[in-house]
């Protein structure tokens, strides 16, 4: 691995890390101002960083093509950056736009969060830059402010109209807990989740089908939800109560109904999941996960053959429940399993993929890990 010194001719001032995430339940609810329940992964994007006094941003990633991208302050302001460097550049641009007096930096990234796998490597990358800059330039911003800055960076300067879940998860999650987040006012509660203590495992199965959120499908779904809210005379679909769902659906054109049904029932699934965790029954999450997948497959229509197969194969092999996680169109599936069935479930899913002629999934186990932090 290329060292910071070899790249930039000096040592870093420090190293920061920000995790990827899986969302247990609450998919496509964040941009409808509803509820989500993510956990942070042990996998992180790490950045070694040092301030520069000339306003330049120099960027290298161990997952990139080996080159150093060098941007002047003018390049940053003009937004002419291309490729992966758009993400870190976007965060610095968002900081400047918000009036923070920050300068340049040498940044070197390394990561074990797979990209485009629905595990939110993009937010991890953004949040790593946000916490590093906060420390390097003594900004003293809170986690929530940094998450909002990172989201704004991705929305405005990368062009992905994502909600706030990924950045809030990467910044605010804690080891041993799921983050119960209300995306309307960003009030959040750490809900204790000790999977191992409950004799459970959470399998994260990357189907290796790459999604691409920038490809327009996500933006179309989001626009559909906003149109439905407008027709209902509401600021966001979050305002439709479960008890008022049928009445709301009767006022909407056919093509918008499944979207609304997913969002409203998914919000209810998040609340029921949190109630189960509060009651000390994490195993009870299983059927909620599987019902969430059915809703994403049949109503929201963001699953694909591989994610559907992983869910079916996991449940058939004894998983308590399974669902796709992330925006969809590929990416990863999570499965909640009893500890002593973890290997058999993973083996069955791998076998089912082989039989169907799909590339083998990458499967690992996850426990709720820490949010973004300085590591040295
Ligand atoms: P996801 O967030 O689900 O992983 P996205 O499409 O939102 O998928 O973001 C993936 C993009 O983030 C990559 O194509 C790349 O541009 C950028 N990225 C993530 N991690 C890294 C990294 N370690 N080095 C360089 N770019 C990265
Ligand atoms: Mg992303």
Task: Describe it.
- This protein has helices at residues 4-8, 73-78, 86-97, 121-136, 143-158, 165-172, 217-232, 245-250, 257-278, 285-300, 305-316, 342-356; strands at 14-23, 35-36, 38-52, 57-61, 69-71, 104-111, 177-182, 188-192, 200-206, 321-325, 332-338, 362-366, 373-374.
- The protein is globular and about 60 Å long.
- 40% of the residues lie in helices and 21% in strands.
- The relative contact order is 0.17.
- It contains 12 helices and 13 strands.
- It folds into 2 domains: 4-190, Ribosomal Protein S5, domain 2 (2-Layer Sandwich); 194-366, GHMP kinase, C-terminal domain (Alpha-Beta Plaits).
- Helix 4 (121-136) packs across helix 6 (165-172), helix 5 runs antiparallel to helix 6 and helix 11 (305-316) packs across helix 12.
- It is α+β, with helices and mostly antiparallel strands and 376 residues long.
- Bound molecules: adenosine-5'-diphosphate and magnesium ion.
- The site of adenosine-5'-diphosphate has 20 residues, from strand 6 and helix 4.
- Residues 120, 122-123, 166, 213 line the site of magnesium ion (MG).
């Amino acid at each position: 691995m290329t060292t910071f010194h070899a790249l930039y001719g000096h040592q870093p001032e420090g190293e920061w890390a920000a995790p990827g995430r899986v969302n247990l339940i609450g998919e496509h609810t964040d941009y409808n101002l509803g509820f989500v329940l993510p956990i942070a992964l042990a996998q992180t994007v790490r950045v070694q960083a040092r301030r520069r006094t000339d306003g330049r941003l120099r960027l290298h990633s161990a997952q990139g093509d080996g080159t150093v991208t060098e941007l002047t302050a003018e390049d940053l302001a003009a937004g002419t950056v291309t490729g992966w460097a758009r993400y870190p550049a976007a965060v610095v641009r968002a900081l400047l736009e918000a009036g923070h007096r920050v300068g340049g930096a040498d940044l070197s990234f390394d990561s074990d969060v797979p990209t485009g796998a629905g595990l939110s490597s993009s937010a991890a990358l953004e949040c790593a830059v946000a916490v590093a800059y906060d420390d390097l330039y003594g900004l003293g911003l809170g986690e929530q402010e940094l998450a909002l800055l990172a989201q704004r960076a991705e929305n405005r300067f990368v062009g992905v109209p994502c909600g706030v879940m990924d950045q809030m998860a990467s910044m605010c999650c804690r080891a041993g807990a799921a983050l119960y987040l209300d995306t309307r006012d960003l009030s959040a509660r750490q809900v204790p989740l000790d999977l191992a203590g409950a004799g459970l495992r959470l399998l994260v199965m990357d189907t290796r089908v790459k999604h691409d959120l920038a490809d327009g499908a996500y933006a179309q779904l989001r626009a559909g939800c906003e149109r439905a809210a407008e027709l209902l005379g509401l600021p966001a679909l979050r305002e439709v109560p479960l008890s008022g769902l049928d009445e709301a659906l009767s006022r909407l054109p056919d093509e918008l109904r499944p979207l609304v049904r997913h969002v409203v029932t998914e919000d209810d699934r998040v609340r029921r999941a949190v109630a189960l965790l509060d009651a000390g029954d994490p195993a009870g999450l299983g059927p909620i996960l599987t019902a969430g997948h059915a809703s994403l497959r049949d109503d929201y229509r963001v699953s694909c053959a591989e994610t559907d197969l992983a869910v079916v194969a996991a449940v058939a092999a004894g998983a308590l429940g399974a669902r796709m996680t992330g925006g969809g169109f590929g990416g990863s599936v999570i499965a909640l399993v009893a500890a002593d069935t973890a290997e058999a479930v993973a083996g069955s899913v791998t076998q089912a993929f082989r039989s169907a002629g799909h590339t083998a999934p990458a499967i690992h186990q996850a426990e709720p890990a820490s949010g973004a932090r300085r590591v040295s």
